[in-house]
């Protein structure tokens, strides 16, 4: 069986948690392949809201196996809190949650290094979630990291000490004011490691190969979005992992020719949290309305998200890089009430009209060229069929399909599982 992918196509927060949850009943295994607790995947059902950071979004389904792949970075402290939340809701996770031995661990000092690095950058800061993601991937690629499998070895604490001591020296090097009590943080870390060790650590690539051979269906769940990809995003205002399709291969050990469907998920408009270029960003009442109606606050940090019109130039780029085969459009309901909708179809760049993302995409270099479409007034949140949706909404979707050359198979009209319309 091929492995299907679900990828965010913008700057994250597209609603992957909800869609994985909706799609889960079609899959035996849901596997996270990159990122860490910088992600916040929100799921709503039975009148309750759940936010997952590291644990795959299939965990609420009874029979689904959930795998945290080798490409993920795990903070045991945050992981433990996620587990406690599952316990509160009587979710029996022990039998269906597996962790790759090759996944790297976020140490308390990684978080401190993240804070020190951001503080030292001043106005040029990335706007990191400060979860230690960048420093942990730096230690991974620098070949200094500690992996989940190391926790099964007797000497892991020696390795830990050497790395944490090195980090403390690095924190001093930044020469910024970062307050901490390492003894306390380490106690919390060690307690959380003990909880983590109660879970099943596995050689996940072998596990997935076997599952494929047995005909099991697998969905690889991405975190963040294509425009935050370490290579193809708006560097340096990106995260530190490969958020695009290729990340599923390296983050799970799946060969490229084993990839099946690539579902791409995007919002009917655009948002971004943290710093960095955002050509269609709005600073007016329209942007304010999108933020308010769409409840655009980060699920991990609570920061307000920046909002703007849909950027088709950026979306086409993401579709291309990921080889998207089916699209899913989220939050169409948030656009209800706008008389006119704008879609960015090109950029004015250095006196030229261009249709690709230039190397230097800073706001002062790029101004969006918009196409206007008619809006709709109706509240979509109670609608369940395409035929009930306003003509202008369907026109908007069809316009995007034509531009992107990929079918939009699902539209979401509210946060609940049930507010999902298949086309
Ligand atoms: P980091 O990955 O926490 O270091 O953050 C790097 C950049 O990616 C910042 O601009 C964050 O706001 C952004 N970012 C990281 N994770 C997410 C996410 O899950 N959703 C949206 N933005 C994110």
Structural write-up:
- The chain has helices spanning 16-23, 76-88, 108-121, 133-141, 156-174, 182-196, 204-213, 245-252, 285-293, 312-322, 391-404; strands at residues 3-8, 29-32, 41-45, 48-52, 65-68, 73-74, 97-100, 104-105, 200-202, 218-221, 259-267, 270-272, 306-308, 310-311, 326-330, 340-349, 352-354, 366-374, 408-412, 420-422.
- The protein is of the alpha/beta class.
- A ten-stranded mixed sheet has the order 9-7-5-2-10-1-11-15-19-20, sandwiched between helices. Strands 14, 16, 17 and 18 form a four-stranded mixed sheet that branches.
- Strand 19 (408-412) and strand 20 form a beta hairpin.
- Helix 3 packs across helix 4 (133-141) and helix 3 (108-121) runs parallel beside helix 5.
- The chain is globular.
- The relative contact order is 0.16.
- Bound molecules: inosinic acid.
- Inosinic acid binds next to helix 4.
Summarize the SSE layout with pairings.
Blueprint: E1 3-8, H1 16-23, E2 29-32, E3 41-45, E4 48-52, E5 65-68, E6 73-74, H2 76-88, E7 97-100, E8 104-105, H3 108-121, H4 133-141, H5 156-174, H6 182-196, E9 200-202, H7 204-213, E10 218-221, H8 245-252, E11 259-267, E12 270-272, H9 285-293, E13 306-308, E14 310-311, H10 312-322, E15 326-330, E16 340-349, E17 352-354, E18 366-374, H11 391-404, E19 408-412, E20 420-422
Parallel strand pairs: 1-10, 1-11, 2-5, 2-10, 5-7, 6-8, 7-9, 11-15, 14-16, 15-19
Antiparallel strand pairs: 3-4, 12-13, 16-17, 16-18, 19-20
Helix pairs in contact: 2-6, 3-4, 3-5
Bound molecules: inosinic acid (IMP).
């Amino acid at each position: 069986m091929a492995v299907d992918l679900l990828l965010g196509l913008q700057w994250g927060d597209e609603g992957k948690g909800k869609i994985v949850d909706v799609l889960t009943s079609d899959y035996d295994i849901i596997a996270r392949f990159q990122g860490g607790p910088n992600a916040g995947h929100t799921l709503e059902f039975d009148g309750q809201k759940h936010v997952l950071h590291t644990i795959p979004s299939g965990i609420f389904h009874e029979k689904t196996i959930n795998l945290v792949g080798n490409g993920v970075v795990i903070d045991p402290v945050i992981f433990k809190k996620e587990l406690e939340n599952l316990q509160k809701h009587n979710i029996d996770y022990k039998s269906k949650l597996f962790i790759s031995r090759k996944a790297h661990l976020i140490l308390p000092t990684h978080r401190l290094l993240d804070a020190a690095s951001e503080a030292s950058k001043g106005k040029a800061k990335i706007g990191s979630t400060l979860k230690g993601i960048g420093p942990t991937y730096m230690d991974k690629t620098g070949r200094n990291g500690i992996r989940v499998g190391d926790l099964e070895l007797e000497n892991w604490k020696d390795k830990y000490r050497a790395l944490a001591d090195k980090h403390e020296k690095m924190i001093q090097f930044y020469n910024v004011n970062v307050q901490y009590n390492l003894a306390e943080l380490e106690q919390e870390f060690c307690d959380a490691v003990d909880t983590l060790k109660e879970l099943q650590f596995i050689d996940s690539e072998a596990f997935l190969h076997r599952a494929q051979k047995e005909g099991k269906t697998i969905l690889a769940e991405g975190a963040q979005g294509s425009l935050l990809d370490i290579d193809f995003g708006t560097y340096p205002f990106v995260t530190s992992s490969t958020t695009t399709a290729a990340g599923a291969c390296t983050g799970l050990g799946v060969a490229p020719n084993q990839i099946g469907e690539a579902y791409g998920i995007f919002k009917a408009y655009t948002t971004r949290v943290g710093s960095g270029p955002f050509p269609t960003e709005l600073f007016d009442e329209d942007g304010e309305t999108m933020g308010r109606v769409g409840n655009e606050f980060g699920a991990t940090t609570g920061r307000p998200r920046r909002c703007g019109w849909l950027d088709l130039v950026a979306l086409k780029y993401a579709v291309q890089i990921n080889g998207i085969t089916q699209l899913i459009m989220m939050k169409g309901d948030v656009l209800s009430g706008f008389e006119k909708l704008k879609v960015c179809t090109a950029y004015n760049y250095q006196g030229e009209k261009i249709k690709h993302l230039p190397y230097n995409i800073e706001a002062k270099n790029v101004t969006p060229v918009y196409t206007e479409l008619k809006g709709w007034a109706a509240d979509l949140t109670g609608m369940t069929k395409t035929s009930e949706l306003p003509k202008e909404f369907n026109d908007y979707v069809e316009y995007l399909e034509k531009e992107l050359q990929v079918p939009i198979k699902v539209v979401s009209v509210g946060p609940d599982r049930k507010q999902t319309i298949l086309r």
